[in-house]
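Continuing from the previous page of notes. For each protein in this section, the sequence appears first, followed by its structure tokens. Read the first protein now.
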Amino acid sequence: MLKFDINKTNYKKIHFIGIGGISMSGLAEILLNRNYIVTGSDMNNSKIIEKLINNGATIHIGHNSKNIEDVDLIVYTSAIGEDNPEYVFAKKNKIPMMDRATFLGELMKSYKDSIAVAGTHGKTTTTGMIASILYISLLDSTILLGGELDSIGGNVKIGDNKLLLTEACEYKENFLKFNPTIGIILNIDEDHLDYFTGMDHIKDTFKKFNNLSLEGGYSIVNGDDENVKTIINTAKNIITFGLNSNNNYYATNIKYNDKGYGEYDLYINNKFIDHIKLNVIGEHNIYNSLSAIAATFISGVDIKTIKEGLKIYKGTHRRFEDKGIVQGIQLIDDYAHHPTEIKATLNSIGDKYNKIYCVFQPHTYTRTKSLLKEFGKCFKGSDKIIITDIYAAREKNTGIVNSKQLVDEINKNGQDSIFIETFDEVVNFLEKTVDKGDLIITIGAGDVYKVGDMFKTKINK
């Protein structure tokens, strides 16, 4: 098996296929900081790519075999197909290649400790919370985030070689290629059913991930999650968190202020530790914060610093992001793309708005098809649900499902939903319909966030 040690120079020039991705760009930035020659390619330009170019990377827009003729190692994202011309050329000419997850797993070996945040929901938020704590702590950590966090100036922060923090995605079992000393499992739910055969397959994969961090490290798991309970063992280095007092880390006396921000009393092993205040909404973020506390506390961060780090964390971009108020209409954007996430997001809003207009862009055909009934029930609390075309991401439209079927499923459950195909048409509809005191929330992992920006531009003209 191919190995990579960032402290050695076996590979001086490294090329990233799909370098504009949030994780790929972070890896590229780490290598640039270590004086590697970094090249890359992607289909479209972006702010992330421009930042890498300014830091010394050579990046081609468009994929071409000529881009990789003199490179020592290729790192590729699983989002590319095997017909990608650079992938085909590299394979034919036996240029060393690693997929992104394998490369990150190898990189983790270069750090004394590493925290990997896994779970079907909440990975980016929890990683952001931990990042905020580490950023103000004495630990000079390297951070790879699946979103953008203002306090660290984007999606990556370069630190020393003592601690690496990263998200750990279960898709295609990629996180089994990692080498964490602290593994976190936030929750386990049905998702990525274009790869997994069902819940048993998903739980078995998380069980293997759980065992990775138990080899000399710690596994921090949600002790209230029914699916998580079935995959953990009773090893002494299992640490549980939740709202029940049988967990190692638990929250009690939970309250929410008028903005929906939570606060609670923190107990560790049945001992009162301190009162914690958050600047993000909802019960799901109580859970996320407990796992962040556990991970940083066992890493040596004191409770006072942990409290301050959680208090300054106000969310990463696209995670219940406040996009402003325009003519009395509140705009919010959220990355939720699974029924459980959507339900949690909408439940967190409260009753301070006259009407809630939810604009949802389904993400991938297989997820929409396999969870159609669940999607039909998760929009409770919305007064009007606008469904746009499905965002294909890595998939091709085979006709297995469409957005109108989702509209029918939602309406069957007694809600008011309509299909509007294009963003321009959505904005036109909203302009004629919403009033002062209403909320427009865009939801989805694709590019639906553009609707809020377009609405704001049009209204302000």
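Done with the first. The second protein uses the same format. Note its length before scrolling.
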Amino acid sequence: MKAVGLTHYLPIDDPNSLMDLELDKPKPTGHDVLVATKAIAVNPVDYKVRAPKDTIEDSPKVLGYDASGVIEEVGSDVTLFKPGDEVFYAGDITRQGTNSEFHLVDERIVGAKPQSLNFAHAAALPLTSITAYEAFFDRLGIDVDGANKGETILIIGGAGGVGSIGIQLAKIAGLSVIATASRPESIQWVTDLGADHVINHREPLRPQIEHLGMKHVDYIAMFNDTDGHWTASTDLIRPQGHIVTIVENSEPLDQQNMKMKAASFSWEFMFARSMFQTPDMVEQHRLLNRIAGWIDEGRIRATANDVVTPINAANLRDAHAKLETGKAIGKIVIEGWK
């Protein structure tokens, strides 16, 4: 089967950083389904895993953590799907990735593809949807059915992949959304997605929040630069409020403001359930099905902003390079094998 992978971890402008490959087609066992991939999407985790380092892989490593496709074959323990089902999912960071013609994935982290979307637009959704959903409803404890209606959430990095779906999920929960964006095109993007207010994360945040008539916000979702926004976030969070981040830190995170406010802080990492085979792993199957339902009901719009054909190393290298600039809006999707 065709695939795109690596053996050496190199800068993205090196042609060997991602290479076209021919690999053996895998066989599903247990809870695995074998998916014929139709489209994939690229996320920051792809280039973070691929980042230059001295490691050399004995056999090619395949990246990719978003896909949509059709189930080709199922393992002996599979109960949720059958061959021919159309699915979307984000995969498991501890296994081979989705950048291959056929891909093995545990059924418990797979959802039924939204019927109203083609494969390309469906592929843009899984990783970011799972991340935003878990960040808001599992980590921040926001009630998905609206019990927190009217409360405020600051989404730092509103125009990125997670922010784009996060704005929409926050609106479904009835929150007042303040999203950050810094360029005219990204400001327009988050506004179109439903943000109630837009502020610039490249300028001091407190004066902009106070200009909106607020002193504090109830929740903060840091989807960009934890180190750079930590001090402002701990200043802006309300007493007993809650902050969540998805971005690793490199500097110590001062806890004094958090302590004085009795505020709380959570990490969100959507691969944790599959990585540790947690007892509630099937919750990702359920939440993807819920996302698909909201898509088909018109409550959420797709977030793909750049769709490229075909799936190959050159197009994947280009997508990685675009993401590494930090200026991508929405999601980059690549579809079709040739």
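What the second structure shows: The radius of gyration is 20 Å. The first strand starts at residue 2 and ends at 9. We return to this in next week's lecture.
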